[in-house]
Amino acid sequence: MATVFSSTTGVIGQLPTNKQANDSSAKDSYFDLAGILDAMSGMVFLLDRWGVIQLANSLALKLCNGENPVGKNVMELDCGWQDASACQRDILYVVRSGLAKRGSVENIFVEGQMRCYCVDIAPASKHAHSPVGVFLTLTDITHQEDSLRALRDSESRHRAFIASSADAIWAYELVPPVDISLPVNQQVDLIMRRALLTECNEKMARIYGVSDITSVVGRPIYLNGSMSNKEDIRRFVLNNYRVEDHEFTRIDKFGELGYMLSSATGVIENGKLMRAWGSTRDVTDQRRYLDRMRYLANHDTLTSLPNRNLLYKELERVLSNRSQNQKVALLLVDLDRFKEINDTLGHQAGDKVLKQLGPRLEVELGDTPGMVARLGGDEFAILLSNIRNRQHAVVTAHRFADAIAERFDLDTFSTELQSSIGVVICPDQAEDVSTLMRYADVAMYHAKNNMKAVSIYDAEYDPNSAKRLTVTGALGRAIREEQLVLFYQPKVDLKTHRVYGFEALIRWIHPELGFIPPSDFVPMVELSSWIYPMTLWVLEQTIKQCAMWRDAGLDLTLAMNLSPRNLADDRIVNDLEVLLKKYNVRGGMLEMEITESMLMSDPNRASRILERINKLGVRLSIDDFGTGYSSLAYLKRLPVKTLKIDGSFIMNMLESEQDEIIVKSTIHLAHNLGLDVVAEGVETLEVYDRLNSLECDSVQGYYIAKPMPIESVGAWLADYQS
Q: What range(s) does the GGDEF domain occupy (predicted)?
């Protein structure tokens, strides 16, 4: 009987010869070998030098469908072997050469399933070069192959995602890593020196201005073109090695300024920053588009002068930064007989006059601190940010009147115009934007009615001054004695054309003066200590009405306005929560409207208050959108659900291409930010239909209904829905 050896471990057993098949000791050795093979984790066959199976372990019987394989070669096995002939050739090769063949992979049907096996063929011999047979071992590697295939697929998808991403995807490796326990400044310096670009996609290469990724891989981070690189890295470190939607500027290889939006995450291992993964998007086109939209929202398209919105912002800025001894003048200019030019020569001639007048006024302003703005039609405003005294303002106004009186050339025709200019001084006569504008208007009409070129404001010219004093003195009593009432204006969903809610608008019914419009008392209340009691009264009445509608089975929301001072008062959130519980009203029935100027006066405090209000379920909306300076990136971070487009853009959108562009772009922008859009000031069916075609979400205005007392709401609602 020949002794059987494995190729690596020595004696395994003995392969019985025919002569010794009945010998008892041989049989014992034979059964010892069978026991060893059964204990192995794979399928094992013992074949003689002619490739005939002499022995198989119990696992190998699965391959043979339970049939005894002894006496057969691998090609005779009925086991779904995909290439049995190749395996048979390998067996004979091992017998002839005495060299093992390992690691080939074979797919075999076992018990009705395709399984993957690693095939090892090793000589069984007493001497290295005289094999008497072979061991054929099949190890099931299906799980490993599936895992490897899944890993390859995942890596392929990962690389495909990176390659096809619209954003630049990148990774910076820290060589060597940076210890995150070091002081922040030291970490920033080390990251600047050690961070190398190790991986990126083609989009990143294009940002660098090259077409080949290999041209940028290996670049240090300080060569990425950012104009604020060190501060960007400091923000990354201070923000726990993360940065999200951070905008920065960079200069490309052609010297062009670009705007980038980047997010990044650091990988920390054992207290060291190893690498940073991130994405960068080139938002230059979007930024320029938004800058253009902001320009259109704040400038007159005909004259390119600042418009009313920008004038108000600049006036607010100047007043808030005014020193104690600084005097500011506001001039309101109206062109006399300008309508005659339009009626006689046509609107094109009138437009040519206005186009010539804008630069003429700016030249006259010269280096004087201030602004020239067109308010609309033939009205202009001139802000003088720093004047010496009252006489200085009057003399300057006469200079502007003289400049306007110069000849205007209209192709083959020329004409002259006169003007009426009203002047008001801050702080001598007023200290807020609203009052300054009103007083300048009063002075301008006095100049026009008295055929004067310039008139400075005097209380004797103001027919409303006595009434204003009476109103101011009665404000406290009005709040205490509940002379205030709420009127309700409906809002309509443009998709369903159904009323889904109302806006609560405050009104004052004075026992002696009668109806007082909000514009005559709300600005004064906001400057007084009565603002919070009035807000609290409105808040309770609004929530109470929500509860009454709910109990009546009406699914309606109700919106109210917040004052800028409310966002600086922590009491508003606590009282809101108490009132919601008192009337058992869920927050989603209530909506609070805030203006852009409110947000930007103290963004951090406003954000904290709004987050607390949002947690109560109350919806938040931006009122009069388009008239403020709010940052879009800042708005995106606020819990705001709705933008309300200011009525000044809506009312003239069918006649003004500029206004329609602003409305259309605002709707598109809001939807991209996941916000709903409400259009205010809808007064005609044509505007209603146009907003519907622009996919505006809902509308509000006199075309739907004027604000009405609560007693009229039920009947109006029933009539509208019918």
A: 326-459
DSSP state of 211: S
- Please classify residue 10 by burial: count the beta carbons closer than 10 Å to its beta carbon, then call 0-12 exposed, 13-18 middle and 19+ buried: exposed
Distances (CA, A) of 374 to 135, 337, 499: 98, 17, 38
Q: Are residues 72 and 114 in the same domain?
A: yes
Task: Say whether both 320 and 379 belong to one domain.
Answer: yes
C-alpha–C-alpha distance, residues 523 and 686, integer Å: 33
- Neighbouring CB atoms inside 10 A of 498's CB total 11
Q: Rg of the chain over CA atoms, in angstroms?
A: 42
CA distances from 23 to 29, 32, 158 (A): 10, 14, 64
Q: Rounded to an integer, what distance in angstroms lies between the CA atom of residue 502 and that of residue 557?
A: 6
Query: DSSP class of residue 69?
Result: -
* Residues 7-45: tens digit of each pLDDT: 333 333 344 444 444 455 545 555 566 677 777 778 899
Per the listing, tokens 């049907």 go with 109
Q: Return the biggest CA–CA distance within the chain.
A: 142
Asked if 507 contacts 705 with a C-beta cutoff of 8 angstroms, the reply is no
DSSP string over 450-465: TT-SEEE--GGG-TTH
Residue found by looking up tokens 């329609």 in the block:
660
Domain residue limits at 440: 298-463
Give the pLDDT score at 630: 53
Query: What residues have CB less than 8 Å from 456, skipping those under 6 apart?
Result: 390, 393, 394, 422, 423, 424, 425, 443
Angle formed by the axes of helices 390-405 and 347-365, to 10°?
140
What single string gives the DSSP state of each residue in 588-619?
A: GGEEEEEEHHHHHHSHHHHHHHHHHHHHTT-E
Q: Based on the fold, state whether residues 479 and 459 are members of the same structural domain.
A: no
Q: 133 is written with which tokens? A: 């047979």
- Residues of the chain with pLDDT > 70, as a percent, come to 86
Angle at CA of residue 372, ends 369 and 374, nearest 5°:
160
Residue 205 — very low, low, confident or very high, per pLDDT cuts 50/70/90? confident
At 452-466, the pLDDT tens digits run 889 999 876 776 665
The Cα–Cα gap between 226 and 559 comes to: 44
The domain that contains 135 carries what CATH number? Answer: 3.30.450.20
Q: Pick the last residue of a domain from 422, 437, 463.
A: 463
Verdict on whether the full-model pTM lies above 0.70: no
Are 73 and 54 a contacting pair, CB within 8 Å? no
Looking at the structure, tell me whether residues 269 and 319 fall in a common domain: no
Residue 666 sits in the same domain as residue 627: yes
Structural tokens at position 258: 């670009």
Over residues 139-197, the pLDDT tens digits come to 888 888 777 777 776 666 666 666 666 688 888 999 999 999 999 999 999 999 999 99
| Same-domain status, 315 and 257 | no
